[in-house]
């Protein structure tokens, strides 16, 4: 845990007592703050009280006494409308911040020079974050991994000289971190997302820009217009800027040509690494992720040889294009994290013959945008509530069956792939749907897939 000492002896209000919120409250208490915490869920309040966190209904307290208001990222700050606690904080003139802001203040106070890499973007954040942390750890560095990737940032070990932090940041967290100042900040890409919480695409982009604007080195993907303009602005403001691309040749920066990552400087470029043969970094999207990771690691002093070794040994991100088993020439791929069509596209683009398990709780738009990948699909196995709608979209373009359950889908897909004489096929769970009709979350769904693969006779597990 990182005790939050920056509010020692002062009163702090907190709203949101889920996983990261409770960890934040405990870190504040450990640092000597006088915390008053609340949550709209009575069970969360009871759990926090049992854990030693002081709680009270924030409608009944004196807001003028608070030095700060800490808001959990899941609680609305601006859209669709501010949470009632936000209105109370504004009325009292109380600063509103989040857990990442508390972390950066502790780092500044205790170890301002310890390397800190922050990663954001609409897609690819988690893979890039995990890849950077893996390279650092494999090189023998003291590495802390957390943030939006699933480990609350204030549960990490406290800042000290020589300790490296790799933190994935959501737009919600950035919005609550006004002094975010990573050593290297990454903005991978921007496409419409979370607009229910940010109102407009421009506001969403403005929030993401803050991460790289405050960085020592700004690493920015320039394949979309919003990000390209951000790169230009932060560079004009005097920030060292490294551009990355998977679509364009760059005069300066890192760019991909197929599986090859080239490093350009002064108009000349040379091969930095070829990702061919690294199964966990297949596809153009992973070339961009790798380019960002390389740029960040170089910015904090990692050698090219150390980076090459880390890339080659990367085990992949759990539930994201994760090869989990093999039987003969058939590979089994867990892409359960693909909870919408856009998220499923990278996996579908990375294999040439796919036995595709899809479905669950459908998202708006279904799978119509995945039509360009339909020629790659040998057969689809449809599960969950989305099955009838997905069947209608596939129509005559792709052979399919409505399997109903994941267990049935895995068994049938494995059998069909095993009879395929083409060779080199993939049985892939890439649902393009949320999991909530059948599973608690995508992690549970992915673990279930792995369990069903493990039960197939003759499969060699890769994890």
Indicate the overall shape.
Answer: globular
Radius of gyration: 23 Å
Structural class: alpha/beta
CATH class label of the largest domain: Alpha Beta
Task: Report the strand count.
Answer: 22
Measured distance between first and last alpha carbons = 29 Å
Count up the domains: 3
Mean pLDDT across every amino acid position: 94
Q: Which CATH architecture of the largest domain?
A: 3-Layer(aba) Sandwich
Strand content: 15-25%
Write the topology of this structure.
Layout: E1 11-15, H1 19-30, E2 34-38, H2 42-50, E3 68-71, H3 84-92, E4 96-97, H4 99-110, E5 116-120, H5 125-138, E6 142-147, E7 163-168, H6 171-175, E8 184-187, H7 195-198, H8 201-213, E9 217-221, H9 225-236, E10 240-245, E11 253-257, E12 260-265, E13 268-274, H10 284-299, H11 304-312, E14 322-327, E15 330-334, H12 341-350, E16 354-359, E17 361-362, E18 377-383, H13 387-394, E19 400-404, H14 406-419, E20 426-429, E21 433-434, H15 442-454, E22 460-461
Parallel strand pairs: 1-2, 1-3, 3-4, 5-7, 5-8, 6-7, 8-9, 9-10, 10-11, 15-20, 16-18, 16-20, 18-19
Antiparallel strand pairs: 11-12, 12-13, 14-15, 14-22, 17-21
Binding site for ATP: 121-127
Pathway: Cell wall biogenesis; peptidoglycan biosynthesis
Subcellular location: Cytoplasm
């Amino acid at each position: 845990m990182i005790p939050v000492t920056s509010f020692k002896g002062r009163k702090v209000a907190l709203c949101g007592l889920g996983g990261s919120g409770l960890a934040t409250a405990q870190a504040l208490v450990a640092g000597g703050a006088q915390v008053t915490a609340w949550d709209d869920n009575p069970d969360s309040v009871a759990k926090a009280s049992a854990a030693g966190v002081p709680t009270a209904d924030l409608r009944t307290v004196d807001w003028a006494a608070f030095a700060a208001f800490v808001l959990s990222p899941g609680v609305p700050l601006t859209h669709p409308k501010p949470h009632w606690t936000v209105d109370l904080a504004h009325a009292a003139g109380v600063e509103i911040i989040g857990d990442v802001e508390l972390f950066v203040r502790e780092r500044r106070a205790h170890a301002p020079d310890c390397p800190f890499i922050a990663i954001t973007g609409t897609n690819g954040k988690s893979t890039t974050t995990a890849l950077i942390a893996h390279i650092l750890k494999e090189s023998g560095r003291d590495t802390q991994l957390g943030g939006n990737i699933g480990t609350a940032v204030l549960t990490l070990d406290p800042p000290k000289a020589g300790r490296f932090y790799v933190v994935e940041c959501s737009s919600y967290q950035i919005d609550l971190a006004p002094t975010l100042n990573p050593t290297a900040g990454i903005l991978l890409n921007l496409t419409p997302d979370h607009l229910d919480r940010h109102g407009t695409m421009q506001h969403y982009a403005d929030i993401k820009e803050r991460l790289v604007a405050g960085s020592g080195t700004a690493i920015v993907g320039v394949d979309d217009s919003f990000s390209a303009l951000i790169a230009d602005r932060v560079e004009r403001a005097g920030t060292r800027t490294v551009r990355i691309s998977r679509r364009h040749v760059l005069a300066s920066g890192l760019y991909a040509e197929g599986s090859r990552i080239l490093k350009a400087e002064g108009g000349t470029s040379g091969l930095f690494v070829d990702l061919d043969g690294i199964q966990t970094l297949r596809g153009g999207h992973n070339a961009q992720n790798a380019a960002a990771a390389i740029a960040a690691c170089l910015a904090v002093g990692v050698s090219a040889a150390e980076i090459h070794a880390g890339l080659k040994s990367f085990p992949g991100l759990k539930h994201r294009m994760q090869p989990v088993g093999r039987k003969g020439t058939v590979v089994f791929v867990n892409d359960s994290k693909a909870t919408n069509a856009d998220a499923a596209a990278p996996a579908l683009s990375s294999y040439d013959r796919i036995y595709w398990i899809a479905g669950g709780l459908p998202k708006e738009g279904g799978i119509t945008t995945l039509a360009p990948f339909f020629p790659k699909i040998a057969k689809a196995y449809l599960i969950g509530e989305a099955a009838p709608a997905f069947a209608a979209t596939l129509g005559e373009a792709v052979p399919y069956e409505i399997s109903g359950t994941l267990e049935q889908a895995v068994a049938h897909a494995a059998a069909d792939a095993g009879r395929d004489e083409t060779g080199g096929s993939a049985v892939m769970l890439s649902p393009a749907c949320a999991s909530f009709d059948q599973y608690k979350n995508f992690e549970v769904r992915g673990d279930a897939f792995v369990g069903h693969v493990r039960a197939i006779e003759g499969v060699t597990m890769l994890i």
